[in-house]
Amino acid sequence: MKKKLITLLSLSLITANMAFAEYAFVDSSDFTGDAFFTPPALEEKQEEAKKANDFGRTPTLPPIKKLRIKIKKALKERDARKYELAPTAEQEDVYAAGAETSEYASKDLVDDFDETGYQIKHINIVKDADCFIIVPATANIIAKVAHGLADDVLSSAFLAATCPKIIAPAMNVHMYENTATQKNLDICKSYHIKIVEPEIGELACGYQGRGHLSDIEDLLDAIEYATSPHPLAGKHVLITAGPTQEPLDPVRFISNHSSGKMGYALAKVARQLGAHVTLISGPSSQRAPYEVDVIKIQSAQGMFKQVLSYFDFQDYVIMSAAVGDYRPLEYSNQKIKKKADEFYLKLGKNEDILSYIGKHKTKQTICGFAMETENVIENAQNKFFKKNCDLLVVNDLFEDGAGFKTDTNKVALITKNFVDYL
Predict the structure, then answer these.
(1) How high is the pLDDT of residue 77?
(2) For this structure, is 188 an active site residue?
(3) Which of 131, 188, 205, 389 is flagged as catalytic?
(4) What is the per-residue pLDDT for 57?
(5) Range 269-294 average pLDDT
(6) Containing H/E element for 141?
(7) How far apart are CA 305 and CA 186, in angstroms?
(8) 79-83, 381-385, 411-415: range with lowest mean pLDDT
């Protein structure tokens, strides 16, 4: 059975007055008429936008085009049905234009309080929904939701839905920080409505501040969380990721090729399964997973201290970081100059984090990681028993599709009783 996910983009309410809103996500129910002030710096964009359409309607906004297409693609991959609500039939061309050149352009548009036979569509479409997200959500619709108003198709359908609900606010920073808006958001949270908090960035009104729609990946993660089972609810998971860097001088350090992809992916999945996740990460360019507590470190000693500070409270510990085994014993406060033909470093051994927590575990289930270049299974089994792991994941650096900085991996799972190849 296909899942049905109701996505209400309040951009569907935008009129010609909002043609200048290139970077903000708002709806026309927040303000009406010519009284709304258009920042001078944006007047030219507004005029150009009006000229772009013979009827003076708002052309599709680039951020919304990206949002619509990406959400449609994600939902198609999840075999989900997506409904979009528009206030009037005459605005459908404005609302749907964002994906009309995309393979994900199929849509179901429901007009304001549309009725077909004995079915009331704004009620009927939500009865089997698995999730309901309003994106972007303005101060106006948030206030309606908080106080149970149902005076248009958006607020009516949202009130009628019994599935998990998500709101993604986007508005002027002062509107967002206003006590009334924050109180309304608190009320929504008390209804168990998930709030995907906006980011700090440039807003359409010319201000800088919190109010920019959250990253698309965060929106998709929130949807996935809302539609996933949560077998790890109430559990605490600690994950390490990325490389460590052992500084030699202000310019140089000793490190490895780890990108952090494995650890960050594990953290995302653990959160989707309902766990409270703490990710201790070495230097990495990976995007922080949604609703995961990320703690940045640089050196192996820094990672060791952070792991110990969180270890006692964890149910599961996944040590996927590529921690440096050695560090320079001497650090130069100035850049080391090139002099002799040969240069020798004196290295000291770092604390073995996996070995330490393996010896001191109480309730924790510990998963270690290993990368080998020879005698892969034999070396991994030795590490498994030596470090007192409950599970160990090993891969071969030289095998195609495995190794550093790849989007795929080929591994073997090591336990006391078996070796399982994946």
Answers:
(1) 67
(2) no
(3) 205
(4) 39
(5) 95
(6) helix 139-146
(7) 36
(8) 79-83
On average, the pLDDT of the chain sits at 78
Report angle CA 415, 419, 422 to the nearest 5 degrees.
115
Q: Over the stretch 47-86, which tens digit does the pLDDT of each residue have?
A: 554 554 443 333 444 455 666 666 667 666 655 655 555 4
Going by pLDDT thresholds of 50, 70 and 90, the confidence category of residue 276 is very high
Question: β-strands 293-296, 3-8: how paired?
Answer: unpaired
Pick from 141, 135, 31, 138: which is nearest to 74 by CA?
135
Count of beta carbons in the 10 Å neighbourhood of residue 212? 24
The residues, any chain, with a CB within 8 Å of residue 322's CB and separated by 6 or more, are: 242, 243, 244, 256, 257, 258, 282, 371
Residue 272 in contact with residue 221, Cβ under 8 Å? yes
Measured torsion, CA atoms of residues 106, 79, 220, 31, in degrees rounded to the nearest 10: 30
Alpha-carbon distance of 6 to 9, in angstroms, equals 10
Distances (CA, A) of 254 to 95, 190, 238, 244: 53, 49, 25, 8
CB atoms within 10 A of CB 62: 11
Of residues 33 and 161, which shows the higher confidence score? 161
Q: Omega into 62 within 30° of 0, i.e. cis?
A: no
The torsion angle over the Cα atoms of residues 158, 163, 164 and 165, rounded to 10 degrees, is -10
79 conformational bin, left if phi > 0, alpha if psi -120 to 50, beta if neither: left
CA distance 323 to 291: 25
φ and ψ of 16, to 5 deg = -60, -25
- Residue 340 above 80 pLDDT? yes
C-beta separation of 165 from 158 below 8 A: yes
Residue 165, helix vs strand vs coil:
strand
- Catalogue the long-range contacts made by 379-382 (C-beta closer than 8 Å, 24 or more residues apart): 380/412, 380/414, 381/414, 381/419
Q: Ramachandran region of residue 375, left (φ > 0), alpha (ψ -120 to 50) or beta? A: left
Residue 387, burial from CB neighbour count under 10 angstroms (0-12, 13-18, 19+): buried
